[in-house]
Amino acid sequence: MIFAGAMGTRDRERRFVERTFGRHDPGFFGKNCGSCHLSGCLDCHGKDGHRVALPGKEACLSCHKGYFVGVDYFGRAPREENHRYQRGRLHGGEPYLKMLPDVHAEAGLPCGACHTMKSLAAGRKSAKGCRDCHVPSREVVEHRISSHIERLECYACHSAWASQEYGTFFLRFVDSPKKEFFLLRGRKGEYVRSVYLKKQDAPPLGVNASGRIAPIRPQFIAFYTEVRGDRPKGKENRLLAAEWKAFFPHTVRRETAACDGCHGNPRRFLLENPGERIYLPDRDGMELLSFWNRTGQRVANGDFIDLSSFLRMSAKSPAYKKGYVEKWKRLTGFEGD
């Protein structure tokens, strides 16, 4: 049953490639994406003859690594341009940046504590959610706000950070001597991959498939260039997709985001003020106005938060101001009026 699901077929990844890179190179998936999928029981349960064991975290992380949720649980973020700068620790052959791990990882909970084999075989991502184990405390200011409890996923506030990859570039070299100028240590095949910007902070927020506010990240804002002979074929850095994905970062911490991390923060919802732009991909000929402007972009498994909702939450009502003051009094230990 599990082999007919996402871990065995990787249908979503294949469909993404078919409508993007696959339109220019039908063999793209096999050349760049074929290493992570189940081929048999021993992929997870051991490869020592007939000795079968329960899968440990390393079995999970053999696929759930890099820019795919898994390694972040243990406090690892993909390292920026490791092949260029040759720095950073390695785990499973992947360079990473050390970050805060999830509190559940610190407590020793393995992946299987939430992602049971029974749930995976049934096609569910997990066997339980946050509130199956935790009851929101009314002593916490944010938990007394009904819209938070009713509309937000717990991890919308409790995810300390998330890996984000803005602008994923694939350069394909066909019978091209110029490939030698792009080859770096460890790079093989006809493709060279690079990234415009990597971030490891609080991710933007959108709406997931359940209609609840949740973290989102680019997966992927994809660009493609083909070099044949000594020059590009067609347009360089051709934008093939600008797709975001609602997801669970697996970086849960007890602390929550500050109030103004969301309220009155348009960039967090891809409503960036044009006058505050730092990165200007459109001026580099990348067919995208801004990574934090939703124009020309979409959430593949959800949606962006509508403007009217953002304006309402940013109005700073008396109730907001009262909660804001109470939160900061608790943080600072101030007891006065």
List keywords for this structure.
337 residues, alpha+beta
Q: What does this protein structure show overall?
A:
With 337 residues, the chain is an alpha+beta fold. It has a domain at 139-337. The protein has 13 helices and ten strands. It has helices at 6-9, 11-19, 28-32, 42-45, 57-61, 82-85, 103-106, 117-121, 146-151, 154-158, 179-182, 307-313, 318-332; strands at 76-78, 89-91, 94-98, 162-174, 191-201, 205-207, 213-228, 231-232, 238-246, 298-299. Strands 4, 5, 6, 7, 8, 9 and 10 form a seven-stranded mixed sheet that branches. Strands 1-3-2 form a three-stranded antiparallel sheet, with no helix packed on it. Strand 7 (213-228) and strand 8 (231-232) form a beta hairpin. The longest helix is centred in the C-terminal third of the chain and has 15 residues, at 318-332. It starts with 5 loop residues before the first helix and ends in a 5-residue tail after the last helix. The model has no long low-confidence stretch (mean pLDDT 87).
Helix content: 10-25%
Q: What pattern of helices and strands is seen along the backbone?
A: HHHHHEHEEHHHHEHEEEEEEHH
- What is the number of beta strands? 10
The gyration radius over C-alpha positions equals 22 Å
Would you tell me the overall average pLDDT? Answer: 87
Largest sheet: 7 strands, mixed
Q: Which structural class fits the helix and strand makeup?
A: alpha+beta
Number of helices: 13
β-strand percent reads 15-25%
Span of the ends, CA to CA: 61 Å
What is the 3D shape?
Answer: globular
Uncertain stretches: none
